[in-house]
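Weekly sync notes, structure subgroup
Attendees: PM, AL, DS (notes)

Item 1: joint prediction request from the bench team. They want all two components modeled as one assembly rather than separately. Inputs as received:
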Amino acid sequence: DTEVTQTPKHLVMGMTNKKSLKCEQHMGHRAMYWYKQKAKKPPELMFVYSYEKLSINESVPSRFSPECPNSSLLNLHLHALQPEDSALYLCASSQEVGYEQYFGPGTRLTVT
Amino acid sequence: QKEVEQNSGPLSVPEGAIASLNCTYSDRVSQSFFWYRQYSGKSPELIMSIYSNGDKEDGRFTAQLNKASQYVSLLIRDSQPSDSATYLCAVRYSGYSTLTFGKGTMLLVSP
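Output from the run, pasted for the record:
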């Protein structure tokens, strides 16, 4: 089973809202990732967690705050976003960092 | 700067033909190469990984790796309209722990 789940599927939020994206995997993977993808562009890496510790932050603005409560869960907390943050947010996991990654279905985020 | 180059396409092939998708990268020591398929509005789906020179076959898909020439290809035999998607090539460069994605090639298979 190579399933990564993400909730919600769609999210519309105002610039003053606080919301969270959730990701879950039950494959025993020890690396989890957040990507942002704009239309007709490749996924853009935001954060990498390895063994529940943040290992890579690709200079993402502080209005995005990741959290890894346990080895199966990954959250992305959103606050004071801008309209240009509207995108498809993808979670992925892999056995270890650098191994083949499996993506979740994504959350389509619209910031109004 | 590490990059992965792909022709953006679209690559148009008739149903039943072989589609050939190419990807070049910028060093000779990288070890891990991946092909993802992404339907419009959906997330990327891993379809092939390849680590050694030569061919790797999985059903209608064949990945070809040539490290000396720094390219990796994906062949899709007996192409079907359902194969119409964007194909992303990803490379794990030596010394890096994350993947570098190409911009993707759009494939259109016409009935």
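Discussion: The first strand of chain B starts at residue 4 and ends at 5.
Action: AL to compare against the crosslinking data before next sync.
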